């Protein structure tokens, strides 16, 4: 009789689940932060010198880009809540563009390093000593993993934008947008830690 | 007992849903069907792992080569470890019985995220497949042991990448299951079921969920680092590039010790359900049982260093880890005392699940006490990496979790299948299983104490007698296992129909028909009493 599965929705459960997932992301990067601190402690001078070679300018630009993109996605939630669908889509589009800009910057930044034969496994990098090998190893691995998260986040946001256009996310059902926002903020937050660790502490 | 006599409500086994045949299983989001998907896959991998174990024990029946080469032996203990740890005991109780019973025991219709639940099963299957693929492709199977210790794990020519990535994917599956359970418990308890009216099995799943959530990412990133080390030569753990292999051990055990509690906590939860039911008595010290579950989960994070007493650590760290290891034994002991106190003056019904619970307490205590011997610094120097360690953790992981798994299987079998099993054969199987277990692993304590190392293919003549006895134990254990599993499968056909509450249990799963209907409850129950309200 009552075998028809009733559609039920629990937004708080979805958000709780997202927060739990964010804990796991924090710990995933947490493991890397531990490794970073151990090797920084052991190779203080080499890390110090290597960090000076990174372009603080590009790093700062990228930090600003991510912070602004966090603002735009947060604003899009408010826009959806106020039933302003068009503005929400524009803001999400802006978020995507900013995310892509971050990746483009990263591409040029990494490209510069590669030109100087600085990449994991490079024999020229190996000649510079253990501290530099570890610094750049961690740099590429951590910013690489972060970039991967940016890409995943962008895919989420793209899917969300399409859902808004198709009216699947509306002013009374926007928990998916909120969850993507949470994820995007986390990616932003991790960058806020990566930026000083690699660019600023010199 | 049950007042629900609704014929029109089909059971979850009969209800077809949108899909037909096998698709009604592998595309089902019903937590009960997903539980059975897990059950069958875990049993298959368990049989694989156990057979490999049997072959390894046969190899050890005499010194020198018996049936396999040294390299095959290395590959075997690696595969045995990866399968048994990552694919059997970690998901074992949570993914099978947790999935089936958690929603029912807290009075819910399903878990919070049913589709995510199915996805985690797919991750599980993908992970194990990757591990199995690593055996047959590349330049030979992995031979590092399940711990993937650096630097060997990125120097060996064995086919490490699929195996390590497989373990990573299995971790993802574990995280998703834990996350799902946590949200389910937070959001979906029936009205009136306050935290302290929740049965113990959901409580232990809750504690487990937190460990899965907070510890698994650490192994995830560690395994990714091993992959990066092998492919990109970054130098994280490579001394030649300035890395530190001991750091790998720290990161590895930061997850893998709490993982032991992922295995044992739900086992303790299942035992805490079985004992009150068959003693017909309220669980003794409910609040302490809850608190000790959380305490184990919490303290369990800070004891990983006891795997590394001989690896090289400051003596301050050694003392701290040793002390904490002793501390984590206290909540476990509280549980054992409370189980015994529950039986005291109870009206005990000697059924198969109760025998399993008895067996659990017995082997768990031996495992626990031998853990204390290893946890004290001086004795560990002598016993580290010997058969003693092997015996200790098989008493906990196979003895503890395994006994609880089969206990849970015999306890909830009528509920899950709607059939009763032949308890005479079940008891014979248990008797052989227990005897074989004690002979197989009990002897290893002696062998280890005498100095026989673990993971060795060959050994000195003085260990010969002990190894013969131990190997014979493995045959008895294996035949017991065979009888148990054959009996359970045969009873699916020949068993009599199970009533809704065959054991007189008081928790919610016994208030609904066996097997349960698709949506579990016709009406969500309102809870007014604690979980074990016996007179």
Task: Describe the secondary structure blueprint for this structure.
The complex is a heterodimer of chains A (202) and B (535).
Chain A lengths: L10 H32 L1 H10 L2 H26 L3 H31 L7 H5 L2 H36 L9 H26 L2
Chain B lengths: L22 H4 L4 H29 L10 H36 L8 H23 L15 H4 L4 H28 L12 H33 L12 H35 L6 H14 L15 H29 L8 H24 L1 H7 L3 H31 L5 H28 L13 H31 L41
Helix pairs in contact in B: 2-3, 2-4, 2-15, 3-4, 3-6, 3-7, 3-8, 3-13, 4-6, 6-7, 7-8, 7-9, 8-10, 8-11, 8-13, 9-10, 10-11, 11-13, 11-14, 13-14, 14-15
Summarize the structure.
The complex is a heterodimer of chains A (202) and B (535). Chain A has 202 residues and is mainly alpha-helical.
Structural class label of chain A: mainly alpha
Q: Which topology of chain A does CATH recognise?
A: Four Helix Bundle (Hemerythrin (Met), subunit A)
- Report the strand count of chain A: 0
- CATH class of chain A equals Mainly Alpha
Terminus-to-terminus distance of chain A: 70 Å
Strand content of chain B: under 5%
Distance between the termini of chain B: 16 Å
CATH architecture of chain B: Up-down Bundle
- Sheet of most strands of chain A: none
Structural Rg of chain A? 20 Å
Averaged pLDDT of chain A, please?
92
The helix-and-strand class of chain B reads: mainly alpha
Cα-atom Rg of chain B, whole angstroms? 23 Å
CATH topology-level name of chain B = Cytochrome C Oxidase, Chain A
Query: How many domains make up the coordinates of chain B?
Result: 1
CATH homology superfamily name of chain A: Cytochrome c oxidase, subunit III, four-helix bundle
| N-to-C SSE string of chain A, H for helix and E for strand | HHHHHHH
Number of domains of chain A: 1
């Amino acid at each position: 009789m009552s075998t028809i599965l009733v559609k039920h929705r629990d937004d708080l459960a979805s958000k709780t689940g997202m927060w739990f997932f964010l804990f796991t992301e924090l710990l995933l990067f947490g493991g890397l932060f531990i490794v970073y601190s151990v090797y920084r402690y052991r190779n203080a001078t080499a890390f110090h010198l290597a960090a000076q070679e990174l372009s603080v300018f590009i790093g700062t630009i990228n930090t600003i880009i991510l912070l602004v993109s966090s603002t735009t996605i947060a604003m899009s939630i408010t826009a959806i809540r106020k039933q302003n669908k068009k503005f929400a889509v524009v803001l999400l589009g802006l978020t995507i563009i900013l995310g892509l800009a971050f990746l483009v910057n990263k591409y040029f930044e990494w490209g510069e390093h590669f030109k100087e034969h600085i990449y994991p496994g490079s024999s020229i990098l190996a000649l510079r000593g253990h501290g530099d090998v570890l610094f750049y190893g961690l740099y590429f691995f951590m910013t690489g993993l972060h970039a991967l998260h940016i890409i995943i986040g962008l895919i989420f946001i793209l899917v969300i934008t399409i859902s808004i256009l198709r009216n699947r996310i509306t002013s009374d059902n926007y928990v998916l947008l909120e969850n993507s926002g949470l994820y995007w903020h986390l990616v932003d937050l991790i960058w806020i830690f990566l930026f000083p660790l690699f660019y600023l502490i010199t | 007992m049950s007042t629900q006599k609704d014929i029109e409500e089909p059971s979850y086994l009969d209800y077809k849903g949108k899909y037909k045949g096998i698709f009604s299983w592998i595309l089902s989001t019903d937590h009960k069907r997903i539980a059975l998907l897990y059950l069958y896959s875990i049993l298959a991998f368990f049989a694989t792992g156990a057979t490999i174990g049997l072959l390894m024990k046969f190899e050890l029946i005499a010194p020198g080569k018996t049936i396999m080469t040294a390299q095959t032996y290395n590959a075997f203990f690696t595969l045995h470890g990866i399968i048994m740890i990552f694919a059997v005991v970690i998901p074992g109780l949570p993914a099978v019985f947790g999935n089936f019973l958690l929603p029912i025991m807290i009075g819910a219709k399903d878990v919070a995220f049913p589709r995510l639940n199915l996805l985690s099963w797919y991750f599980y299957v993908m992970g194990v497949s990757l591990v199995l693929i690593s055996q047959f492709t590349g330049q030979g199977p992995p031979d590092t042991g399940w711990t993937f210790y650096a630097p060997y794990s990125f120097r060996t020519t064995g086919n490490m990448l699929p195996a390590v990535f497989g373990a990573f994917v299995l971790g993802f599956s574990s995280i998703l299951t834990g996350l799902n359970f946590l949200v389910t418990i937070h959001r979906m308890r029936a009205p009136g079921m306050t935290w302290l009216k929740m049965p113990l099995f959901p409580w232990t799943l809750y504690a487990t969920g937190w460990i899965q959530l907070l510890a698994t990412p650490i192994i995830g990133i560690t395994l990714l680092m091993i992959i990066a080390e092998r492919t990109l030569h970054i130098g994280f753990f490579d001394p030649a590039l300035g890395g530190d292999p001991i750091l790998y051990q720290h990161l590895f055990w930061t997850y893998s010790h709490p993982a032991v509690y992922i295995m044992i906590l739900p086992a303790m939860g299942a035992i805490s359900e079985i004992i009150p039911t068959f003693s017909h008595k309220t669980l003794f010290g409910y609040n302490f049982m809850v608190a000790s579950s959380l305490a184990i989960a919490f303290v369990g994070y800070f004891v990983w260093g006891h795997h590394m007493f001989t690896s090289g650590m400051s003596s301050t760290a050694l003392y701290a880890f040793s002390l904490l290891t002793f501390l984590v034994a206290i909540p476990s002991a509280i549980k054992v005392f409370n189980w015994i106190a529950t039986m005291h003056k109870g009206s005990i019904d000697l059924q198969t699940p109760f025998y399993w619970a008895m067996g659990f307490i017995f082997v768990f205590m031996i495992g626990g006490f031998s853990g204390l011997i290893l946890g004290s610094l001086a004795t560990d120097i002598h016993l580290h990496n010997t058969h003693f360690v092997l015996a200790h953790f098989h008493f906990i992981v196979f003895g503890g979790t395994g006994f609880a798994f089969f206990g849970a299987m015999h306890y909830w079998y009528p509920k899950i299948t709607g059939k009763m099993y032949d308890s005479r054969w079940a008891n014979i199987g248990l008797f052989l299983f227990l005897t074989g277990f004690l002979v197989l692993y009990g002897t290893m304590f002696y062998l280890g104490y005498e100095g026989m190392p673990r993971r060795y293919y060959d050994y000195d003549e003085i260990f010969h007698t002990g190894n013969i006895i131990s190997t014979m134990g493995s045959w008895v254990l294996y035949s017991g296992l065979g009888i148990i599993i054959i009996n359970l499968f045969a009873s699916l056909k020949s068993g009599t129909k199970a009533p809704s509450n065959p054991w007189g249990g008081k928790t919610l799963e016994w208030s609904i028909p066996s097997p349960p209907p698709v949506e579990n409850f016709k009406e969500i129950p309102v809870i007014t009493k604690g979980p074990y309200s016996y007179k």
